[in-house]
């Protein structure tokens, strides 16, 4: 079963590629595969929330809210540590993604 959020979360990468993350499974895939850090408190909370949303324990929109916060935390980590631009991720600026 593919669980979706009411509105996707738009992410933008350093090469100006934008992706729409449509639900907790996609968010978990990004967290595990390309996230710039595994150290942030929100990263850990987001992983748990996405897994729990997939299992039906956590409300899907709560997992979305936490994922948006984790994306902001990932962006801050990138800027602070000046990581390779291939790992740059931030929330895309769009009124539709709020």
What's the short version?
The protein contains 3 helices and 3 strands; from the N terminus they run E-E-H-H-H-E. With 98 residues, it is α+β, with helices and mostly antiparallel strands.
Considering the chains and any ligands shown, give keywords for the structure:
globular; 48% helix; 98 residues; alpha+beta; disordered C terminus; single chain
Fraction of residues in H or I helices? 40-55%
Spatial order of the strands in the main sheet?
2-1-3
Average pLDDT metric: 77
Give the termini distance in whole angstroms: 25 Å
The helix count comes to 3
**Category from helices, strands and their pairing:** alpha+beta
- Rounded to the nearest angstrom, the radius of gyration is 13 Å
| Portion in beta strands | 5-15%
Break the fold down into its secondary structure elements and pairings.
Blueprint: E1 9-13, E2 18-21, H1 24-33, H2 41-55, H3 60-81, E3 89-91
Antiparallel strand pairs: 1-2, 1-3
Report on this structure:
This protein has one domain (23-97). Helix content is 48%, strand content 12%. The longest helix is centred in the C-terminal third of the chain and has 22 residues, at 60-81. It is an alpha+beta fold and 98 residues long. Mean pLDDT is 77; it is low at 79-89 and 91-98. Helix 1 (24-33) packs antiparallel against helix 2 (41-55) and helix 2 (41-55) runs antiparallel to helix 3. A hairpin with a 4-residue loop joins strand 1 and strand 2 (18-21). A three-stranded antiparallel sheet has the order 2-1-3. The radius of gyration is 13 Å and the shape is globular. It starts with 8 loop residues before the first strand and ends in a 7-residue tail after the last strand.
């Amino acid at each position: 079963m593919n669980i979706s959020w009411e509105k996707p979360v738009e992410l933008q990468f350093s090469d100006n590629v934008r992706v729409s993350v449509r639900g907790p499974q996609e968010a978990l895939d990004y967290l595990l595969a390309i996230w710039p850090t595994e150290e942030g408190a929100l990263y850990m909370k987001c992983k748990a929330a996405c897994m729990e949303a997939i299992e039906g324990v956590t409300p899907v929109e709560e997992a979305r809210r936490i994922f948006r916060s984790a994306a902001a935390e990932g962006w801050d980590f990138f800027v602070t540590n000046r990581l390779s631009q291939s790992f740059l991720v931030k929330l895309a600026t769009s009124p539709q993604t709020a």
